[in-house]
Specification:
Length: 414
């Protein structure tokens, strides 16, 4: 082990600057093979530790919990390593290729599914030659991309249980969310084919409906925005299950001094699930929300609870929907039910909650407007959008009249 660590130290000390394309790729290929071999040793050691009950030395019952606590692995990754270790004894061909560095840890984990107890039982009942399966799948892993390995394993498992009962689609579904220090979240989910199709269909409908001129977002950003928009739509509809007598909504707690201060006010507001955001973000969320005044005493105890006030009453929103017919940001065609009512002059700065001071903006463009962009309604009813530097965004089609688009205007008029 000391020699291994010394070798890694020597690698880390190498100057990569003089190397160019082919030499860097050769180095990377060797490192990836070494990484696979180390992953194989980790899985083998974890299995031996599991068999011997080594986790008990540190007061833990399972190696998965040891890996989470001592190895700082995520729940998903710890479980994957344990499952891979268990599969090594049942699949010697895969184990040898893994140890040689020609199979990755991800591939080994996927192939390892065939060695799970229920699948081994079915294979034994049907007289399946597990050695042959091991050889074929290992060869696929050595020569083909990861996706092909996953398809081959899926094909085998389907044929293994071709006459079995239709599985419960909810049995394999998982959604794991990890919260980070800044309040952002990341996660991983697993859905079966039908559930995945439903999710993709819902996201794709929002992605296609939300595409606008000059959209430079990546595919990943488009899908993420679509997911947030779906949540917005569902929260706004009021049809979600009631939680402790209240309809679920985004909750923001912010001091009145930070709320009225025009500065950004980083970390001044707290969200319902514990994340902190800036006062500027809180003011944006309050644009089309409800505000409740609560007076707190020196010890943080509520002394007075004021009336909850809807900043945008229903009749103003309905009028804005009739007038604007969707997001007024130039080039966007998001429908009214995607939109917030934005105060052109911020309500906290004395802006009235009136039709004349309102504009419909989708979630993405509402964010843009609160980060320097500006929308303006001209006397003739046209909406114009300006960048933070004051220049106007033009698409060749401008909104005319009550939210409609008309033919291109002459250069002088535009």
């Amino acid at each position: 082990m000391e020699q291994l660590l010394a070798a890694v130290d020597a690698l880390a000390a190498e100057n990569l600057g003089p190397l160019f394309g082919p030499a860097l790729l050769d180095r990377l290929s060797s490192l990836l093979a070494a990484q696979n071999r180390l992953a194989a040793e980790v899985a083998r050691t974890v299995r031996e530790a599991e068999v011997s009950g080594a986790a008990e030395v540190d007061g833990l019952q399972t190696m998965a919990s040891w890996l989470r606590g001592h190895g700082h692995l995520s729940t998903v990754e710890a479980a994957r390593v344990v499952r891979t270790g268990r599969a090594l004894a049942q699949l010697p061909g895969m184990a040898a290729a893994f140890a040689a560095g020609t199979v990755t840890a991800e591939q080994a984990a996927v192939i390892g599914r065939v060695a799970e107890p229920e699948h081994l039982t079915r294979a034994a009942e049907q007289g399946v030659d597990l050695g042959g399966v091991d050889t074929v799948l290992t060869q696929v892993a050595i020569t083909r991309p990861h996706a092909d390995v996953a398809r081959a394993v899926h094909h085998y498992l389907q044929r293994l249980d071709a006459d079995g009962p239709e599985p419960d689609p909810t049995g394999g579904r998982r959604l794991v969310i990890a919260r980070h220090a800044d309040g952002s979240i990341s996660g991983r989910f697993d859905l079966e084919a039908v559930g995945g199709e439903k999710l993709q269909a819902a996201l794709e409908s929002v992605v296609q409906a939300g595409r606008c001129a000059g959209d430079e977002r990546t595919r990943g950003q488009q899908l993420a925005d679509a997911l947030v928009q779906l949540c917005d739509n569902q929260l706004a509809s009021g049809n979600l299950p009631v939680l402790r007598g209240h309809k679920p909504q985004v909750i923001v707690k912010v001091g009145v001094e930070d709320l009225v201060d025009p500065s950004v006010g980083a970390g001044a507001a707290e969200l319902g699930f514990g994340a902190t955001v800036s006062a500027a973000r809180a003011r944006w969320l309050a644009c089309d929300g409800v505000v409740t005044r609560i007076v707190l005493g020196p010890g943080g105890m509520p002394l007075e609870h004021g009336r909850t006030v809807r900043l945008v009453p229903p009749h103003v929103r309905r009028a804005a929907e009739v007038r604007d017919r969707g997001c007024v940001f130039t080039g966007c065609g998001a429908p009214t039910h995607w939109c917030d009512v934005h105060h052109l002059l911020a309500w906290i700065d004395g802006g009235q909650t009136s039709l004349a001071n309102s504009a419909l903006l989708c979630e993405r463009h509402h964010t843009k407007v609160h980060h320097g962009f500006r929308v303006e309604r001209q006397p003739d009813g046209r909406w114009r959008t300006r960048r933070p530097d004051g220049s106007e965004i033009r698409t060749g089609l401008l909104r005319t009249g009550p939210g409609r688009t008309g033919p291109p205007l002459p250069a002088a008029a535009a």
